Amino acid sequence: MDANLLSSYIFAVVVLNVLLGLMAYMTYFERKVMAAMQDRVGPNRTGPVGLLQPIADGIKLLTKEDIIPKHADRRIFLLAPLLSFVLAPVAAAVIPFGDSINVFGHEVNLYVADINVAALYFLAIGSMGVYGIILGGYASANRYSLLGGLRSAAQVISYEIILGLSLIGVFILSGSLSLVEIVSQQSETLNLGPLQLPNWFILSQPLAFVIFLIAAVAETNRAPFDLPEAETELIGGFHTEYSGFRFSFFFLAEYISMIIISLFAATIFLGGTDGPIRDGVWWLAIKAAIFLFFYIWLRTTVPRFRYDQLMGLAWKVLLPLVLINILLTGFIRLWGLGML
Amino acid sequence: MGIEDRFEKSILTTSVDSVFNWARRSSLWWLQFGLACCAIEMISAAMPRYDIAERFGMLYRASPRQADLMIVSGTVTKKMAPVVRQLYDQMSEPKWVISMGSCANIGGPFDTYAVVQGVDQVIPVDVYVPGCPPLPEALYHGVLELQNKVIRYDTIAKKEGSDQAEAFREESRAEAQAALGPRR
Amino acid sequence: MAAEVLVFNLLSAVAIVAAAAMITMRNPIHSAIALVVTFVNVAAIFVMLRAEFLAAVQIIVYTGAVLVLILFVLMLVNQDDLPEFHGAKPLQQVFGFGLGIVLLIEIGAAILTRTVVAEPGPWDEQGIAQAGGHIQSIGQVLYSGYVLPIQATAFVLLLATIGALFLGRPDEDEEPTPTRRPVATISLAHTRGADDAPLPQLQAANVKHEAGDRDLIMARDADEFTSIPGEDDEQKERSE
Question: The pTM is what?
Answer without folding.
Answer: 0.82
